[in-house]
Amino acid sequence: MKKLFASVALGTLLMGGFLFMQDNQSTELAHGEAEPSVLRASFTSPINLF
Amino acid sequence: MEIGSFIKLQRVKKGMTQEELADGIVSMSYLSKIENLRTEASPEVVSMLCTRLGIELNSEKDITIKEKCEQWFNMLYVVNDKEMIIEKYNELNELLSVVRSDSMMLFEIHKIRYYLVLGQYDNALEQINSLNEVSGTFDNLHLFYWYKFKGNYATLNNEYNQAMNMYKLAEDKISQIHLSDSEIADLQYTIAVTHSKLLNTLEVIEYSNKAIDIFQREYNFIRCAQCHILLGISYRRIKMYEKAIKHYNLARHLGELNKNNTIIQLTNQNLGYLYSSIGDSKEAIKHYLGAIDDESVGLNERLIAITNLIKEYYKTGNFEKALEVIEKAKKILELAKNNVFYEVYYYIIHSYVYAINNEYEQFTTLVIENLIPYLKKHKDHGNLILFTNMLAKHFEEVGRYKDSVKYYKLANLTYEEIVNL
Fold it and tell me: Are B250 and B267 contacting, i.e. CB atoms less than 8 angstroms apart?
């Protein structure tokens, strides 16, 4: 029984860690296009290069 | 802003401990209660604490400060002259360090955006960290800007998932506070940009359309043009090319009317990419050429356009023209020597130099040891596919089939990763 609880807890932890990592990973994608800036109109912020 | 939070903020800003501020006026534990809004201090105590902090309590001045703050906040969105923004900032900063004002906290929060506009990212982070201590006392209006500017910081650090979380928290606050339409549209536009970076195409269309409605009503043509660019990118991604071209042309038209070179350059760059993706190299080159010559736009933007142009000439086998452009690119690269993006452009440009001049040893070394690790680290899938394919093709041509398979496989895996995103 103890082993069952331990493996369920470990599984939950691992899954939690995995989901956390997925949520927090930075996404720097190059799609060859360049979006305008979130700041002022005269700035641009090209993808993946800063 | 509550007086307790104000005292805490001023004390932290001046680097005083609670003990130093409370000494001879109140007990330290009582000061702690005042700061954490667990008790209300008498006007005498407040006055004595403010005097020790060097702050003047004057409600008449507060009205002037509020107006000045609003002018300055607005400048952070529309004014392109950094000197003007800095001048106004210094004036306000001086005023707010000696007078108690309700606008104080909003001013402190807007400093995050101020530093971002000036490109001082370290200062922005420092400001975020110092405000973290008092963020528990923020009202809904404060929270709106707090989340929005923290999102801006994450965006500028290429952390788009985190930025999106922040923008969504800011969006949740809209129903609880009174905001102008232009403020709401600006957040919607910001969310649209972030969705675009995350490749959430349908959301980009939704948010851009929402924002463009307001920007049109407010005659904010530059933001309208930026929304059209986002729509152009989105329709290109779902292969609705005619619609994408229509939006790009609208953006360029608005850019020309307003003499905004950044908009014109951005439109040319994206139109070039669109034509390149549908195999029309002639049109792609025409637009890329229009994007590289304007010296008034940023170095990074010019380097993006010029490397795309090199790629296009290389793709069409026009090596002579490619080498001509490479010489030009090297000159621009020299100017960008101290920038963070210098490294990747250096690798890309030199990879083409070696490939075109048949210097295969240098080519393979540079691509394998420098370029591929860099692209993997920065999750630059597009360039990764391009260069691994180039490398694999080269190995295939010289009969190194094992190496060739290795890199074709890497290109395929990267492609699958993009498809699964």
Answer: no
Measured between beta carbons, the chain A residues lying within 8 angstroms of B198 are 27, 29
With CA atoms as reference, the chain A residue closest to B75 would be A40
- Residue B244 and residue B174: Cα distance in Å, rounded? 31
Tokens describing residue B238:
């779902």
Residues of A in contact with B308 (CB under 8 A): 32
Judging contacts by C-beta atoms under 8 Å, the chain B residues touching residue A44 are 262, 265-266, 297-298, 300-301
Please give, rounded to a whole number of angstroms, the shortest distance from the CA of B301 to a CA of chain A.
7
pLDDT in tens, B65-112: 788 888 888 888 776 678 888 888 888 888 777 777 778 888 999 999
Residue B37 contacts by C-beta under 8 Å, 6 or more apart in sequence? Answer: B2, B4, B5, B137
Task: Note whether B65 and B103 are within 8 A (CB).
Answer: yes
CB B169 within 8 A of CB B147: yes
What distance in Å separates the CA atoms of residue B24 and residue B9, rounded to the nearest whole number?
A: 20
- A21 interface with B at CB cutoff 8 Å: no
Model pTM score = 0.76
pLDDT tens for residues B216-245? 998 889 999 999 999 999 999 999 999 999
Structure tokens at B38: 């667990």
DSSP string, B168-200: HHHHHHGGGS---HHHHHHHHHHHHHHHHHTT-
| Residues whose CB is less than 8 angstroms from the CB of residue B251 and which lie 6 or more positions away in sequence, other chains included | B225, B226, B228, B229, B232, B263, B266, B267
Who among A26, A31, A49 is closest to B341 (CB)?
A: A49
Closest-approach residue (CA) in chain A for B378: A28
With beta carbons less than 8 A apart as the criterion, state whether B375 and B407 touch: no
A39: chain B residues, CB-CB within 8 Å: 113, 116-117, 152, 156
Mean of the per-residue pLDDT values of chain B: 88
Task: Supply the Cα-derived Rg of chain B in whole angstroms.
Answer: 26
Q: What are phi and psi for residue B239, nearest 5 degrees?
A: 65, 25
State the number of CA atoms in the 13 A half-sphere of B94 facing the CB: 6
- With residues binned 3-state (H G I as helix, E B as strand, rest as coil), the percentages for chain B, rounded to 5, are 80, 0, 20
